[in-house]
Amino acid sequence: MTTVQSPPAPTAAIRPKVMARAGLYAVLAANAAVVTVFFAQAGFASNALIVLGRAAGLYGALLMAFQLLLVARLPWLDRRIGMDRLTLWHRWVGFGLLWTLVAHVVFIVLGYADSSGLDPVNQLVDLAETVEGVLRAVVALALIMAVGAVSARSARRRLAYETWHFIHLYTYVAVVLAFSHQVAAGSTFVSSPAATAYWWTLWSVALGSVALGRLVLPLWRNHRHRLRVSAVVPENDDVVSVHVTGRDLDRLPARAGQFFLWRFLTPDRWWQANPFSLSAAPDGRTLRLTVKAAGDGSAALRRLRPGTRVFAEGPYGAFTTLHRTRPDALLIAGGVGVTPIRALLEELHGHAVVIHRVATERDAVLHDELRELAEAKGAELHLVTGPVAPDRLAPHELARLVPDVTDRDVYLCGPPGMTAAVLRSLRELGVPRRQIHFERFSLAG
To answer: Which of 27, 200, 300, 352 is the most buried (most CB within 10 A)?
Structure first.
């Protein structure tokens, strides 16, 4: 077994997550200030409703550009914030964008209707027929409302991921239509050469970030590394490990704890991509993922043949040693959530305590490897078995297993229910939030 150790984690004056989050807030605030200045310079209409409508439209355009940045999957942001948190921000900004654009339409229509004497419906029809770009804006709003409807939790639970993702792609159509509307009808857009240059630059950066992070970078990395399956190893009846090799893997910026969006190019599965964590620290020669059969896609991995081409997007995730704040660590895994935990243990420096929570010993995937690695690194390993109730990781149980838990970084990966329960236990024990690291493997956009 190859053990990859990282140097001791330095104590950073500013944590990477805080720096990235502050940077995003600063960028948004600075652009909001610029938009406000250009809006004021363009002058105000005599009708207060039209003024409010134009302001809502401008800030809606800014939020739309910010949305693109959140879903661009840029490595610098992802490694520091994490795709799950970017996805959460994307969700809330998306609902804010929807209501801002609705306000834009309502105020503009009511404002012009007040001046013309038409009723709101006929006024909207008149604007769509007589003002260039308005019809495109109406279509864009309808698309954004449809995406917002299917993104609601109740609707999202009823849709397959592929269906939801396909509908979500219409957001890009809405972005193009909205931008063309702004170019054609936006008074602030053409109010001055500086305003025009600003909006072109903003949209170019936003769309360029998406193209770079979601198209150019994945294509370039896969062309460079030429990934292929090198071995398929059953771990038990339900779990399989897939070993992947390629060229120049030592130049792939993957770290223990991260995941890829894997696409195995077989005739029946080339179109399906799934997020799976690395189950061993990258060693520059191979990558390994370990997967439990939970559906047709994951079950089909057992039938992969060595030599199968692989298209992988990533690495993604902030569940890494980059965010360490303490010299010692506690690693808690639930079930097959042990895969990134096992990889992290391989890379961690300092004393570690590992807790693996499973229903039965038979469910303890990779436990032999975990035990050997713990012995090699001088780590403590606890296998906790039994039914869900009573809670084997309740505050008093965690305090018994790890008396100095508040002095450690805690890395947690497991099913949602277990993750929520352990987070409650850590809070009750007084573990500072900055020392708790967990990630839900979801992808922005």
So the answer is: 352
DSSP structure class, residue 266? -
d(CA 6, CA 211): 33
Same domain, 203 and 56: yes
- For the chain, the domain total comes to 3
Q: Which domain holds residue 94?
A: 16-212
Q: Tell me how crowded residue 222 is: count the other CB atoms within 10 A of its CB.
A: 17
Q: Please tell me the pTM assigned to this model.
A: 0.85
Same-domain status, 306 and 331: no
Q: Tell whether 199 and 117 lie within a shared domain.
A: yes
Residues 92 and 199 in one domain: yes
Q: Within this chain, do residues 385 and 352 fall inside the same structural domain, yes or no?
A: yes
Answer yes or no: are the C-beta atoms of 306 and 385 closer than 8 Å: no
- Report the CATH number that the domain containing residue 245 is assigned in CATH: 2.40.30.10
> CA neighbours within 13 Å on the CB side: how many for 3?
15
What is the DSSP pairing of strand 239-245 with strand 228-234? antiparallel
- Name the domain boundary from 268, 292, 316: 316
413 DSSP β-pair partners: 333
Residues 297 and 406 in one domain: no
Per-residue pLDDT of the chain (445 residues; tens, 9 = 90+): 444 444 444 444 568 888 899 999 999 999 999 999 999 888 776 689 999 999 999 999 999 999 999 999 999 999 999 888 898 898 889 889 999 999 999 999 999 998 888 999 999 999 988 888 888 888 988 888 888 787 777 777 777 666 777 777 888 888 888 888 888 777 777 778 898 899 999 999 999 999 999 999 999 999 999 999 999 999 988 899 999 999 999 999 999 999 999 999 998 888 888 899 999 999 999 999 999 876 666 778 889 999 999 999 999 999 999 999 999 999 999 988 999 999 999 999 999 999 999 999 888 989 999 999 999 999 999 999 998 878 889 999 999 999 999 999 999 999 989 999 999 999 999 999 999 999 875 444 4
Sign of CA dihedral 157, 159, 160, 163: negative
CA distance 116 to 113: 5
CA distances from 77 to 25, 58, 85, 206, 324 (A): 13, 25, 11, 14, 17
Q: Are residues 110 and 166 in the same domain?
A: yes
Assess if residue 113 is contained within a domain. Answer: yes
Among 282, 316, 350, identify where a domain stops. 316
What is the distance between the alpha carbons of residues 17 and 165, in angstroms, rounded to a whole number? 28
